[in-house]
Amino acid sequence: MKVGRVSRGRPRTRYRAWVALVGLVAVLAAGTWGLTGAQPRPGTDAWALSAVQDARFVAADPATAPVPVAESPIRPGCVGAHVASGGAEPAHADGAEPQTGDASADDGAIEGDMVLSVWAHPDDDLVFMNPGIADDLQAGECVSTVFLTGGDAGAGQDRATARQRGVMAAYDDLMGRETTWHEVRVVLGSGVEASVWTPDGDDRVSLTFLDLPDGNTGGQGFAATHHETLPRLLAGDLPELHPVDGAPAVTRTALVSALEEIVTLLEPDHVVTSIPDGAPGAVDDPTRPDHPDHRAAGAVTREALLDVGFDLDRVDFLVGYPSYDLPVNLGGDELVDKVLAFRRYAQYDETSYCADYTSCLHHGRLGQWLQRHYVMTEDELYPAGTPD
């Protein structure tokens, strides 16, 4: 009957329309996917994997034995900026004294100097030391940066590796380039193994990663790494830490010895690190304390410097989380350059991801830290002298 045929035809028409609509959506989606480069969404396993597999970063063959540190590229060679610039005077050549907390203060950027900085996590240098890194690189310094933990947040080596890639990408951004980085696995005299990365075509820079477990914001660590933390190691609560990259376990004595060896090998003119745990002059609001890993990194670095007789007047201690409560002291091009370099890093770090300058500045407390740069000296932190 006609009625019956019509009733059967209407669903068929709707079905064909639905198929056409689905096909149109699929075509548009495929086109959009192609235009955006099919980037994985931040926070997914695919995101972490894409960061690890970035072809610009060439990892060492895991079957290759680590080389002795003295044979490694951990000590960069300087190409002094004064040669290329015709003898330009370094910052503050007029004799003006830099002020603590002044963002324009010279943090060691004297042409041809060796600058060593030691941090808890990959990105601490970008958040708390910069614009000092930019100043050092652009002044022709030798820059050697050491990261004690992998900043893995209990998520394993892929997370740590992604953050390492981000730091290298940010250093490239600060230098206005995009180059390939290569890894060399290194063993120090203390038995501590490290991953040392250097960029092609620039022998002034090295980044060293020890990949110790991240201690978490409260110092409690993570179940995935058996709650092993740097603060607990320094306090004597743990006999050793197990690096997240599978390297041999690290004792407190071995860690201090490793830092002593690095300082002795590099003979730095200037050292930068976090404010040590227990420093009497530290700016540390109990309601908003610094990260325990930061304080531990500063403490173990200072201990190693004292052991080798390094002049602590040549050390800058950077204010970490507590800078949030201090006045903003960065602005203009200096702030723009710092934030854009951090944005480059954040493309590899799912928890710090920000898409552009504005979103980075509005990224909670992180955006506030980026707008600040506060330095303290040994005399300010220990006004009564070094404790026994």
TrEMBL record:
Classification via Pfam families: PIG-L (PF02585)
Listed GO MF terms: N-acetylglucosaminylphosphatidylinositol deacetylase activity
Gene3D superfamilies: LmbE-like
InterPro entries per the UniProt record, alphabetical: GlcNAc_PI_deacetylase-related, LmbE-like_dom_sf
Highest taxon of the lineage: Bacteria
One record GO biological process: glycoside metabolic process
Keywords noted in UniProt: Zinc
Annotated stretches, region: Disordered: 82-108
Listed name of the protein: GlcNAc-PI de-N-acetylase
